[in-house]
Design goal:
Layout: H1 9-17, E1 23-24, E2 46-50, H2 59-69, E3 78-83, H3 87-93, H4 104-107, E4 108-110, E5 118-122
Parallel strand pairs: 3-4
Antiparallel strand pairs: 1-2, 2-5, 3-5
Helix pairs in contact: 2-3
Length: 124
């Protein structure tokens, strides 16, 4: 949707760092503010994205997400990943502890309407 590509300056660096691994979609309106159909994309820290193979939402998808979360530079800046529930993902992340000590199940969470993309909440 138009006017949906504004991010906080601190978030832009994170997105540029991951640009070879994800395709960025909706972020926020210029200087924040909600836009339909998003309820949370209002502060420049919420990012819809896609990566190769995401649509399968299988164990390989979970492994790619865990790799991103374990990235030494910015993995811990990914506070939450919202995905539409898929048993293969939940089975693959159950009991997995990320390199920074967080449980994968505390970071990768269920949200409807995320079958074709995932949603990151980034720490500014």
């Amino acid at each position: 949707m138009g006017g949906d590509d504004w991010a906080l300056p601190s978030i832009i660096g994170i997105l540029e760092y991951f640009e070879d691994q994800i395709v960025v979609g909706d972020i926020s309106n210029m200087n924040g503010g909600r836009f339909a159909p998003h309820a949370s994309h209002d502060d420049g820290t919420h990012v819809d994205a896609w990566s190769t193979g995401y649509d399968a939402r299988d164990a390989a998808t979970a492994a790619r997400m865990i790799d991103l979360l374990n990235d030494d530079t910015y993995g811990s800046s990914i506070g939450t990943v919202f995905v539409t529930r898929a048993d293969a993902i939940w089975n693959a992340i159950d009991g997995v502890r990320l390199d920074d000590g967080r449980l994968a199940t505390d970071v990768i969470r269920h949200a409807t309407a995320h079958t074709t993309h995932f949603h990151w909440v980034l720490d500014a």
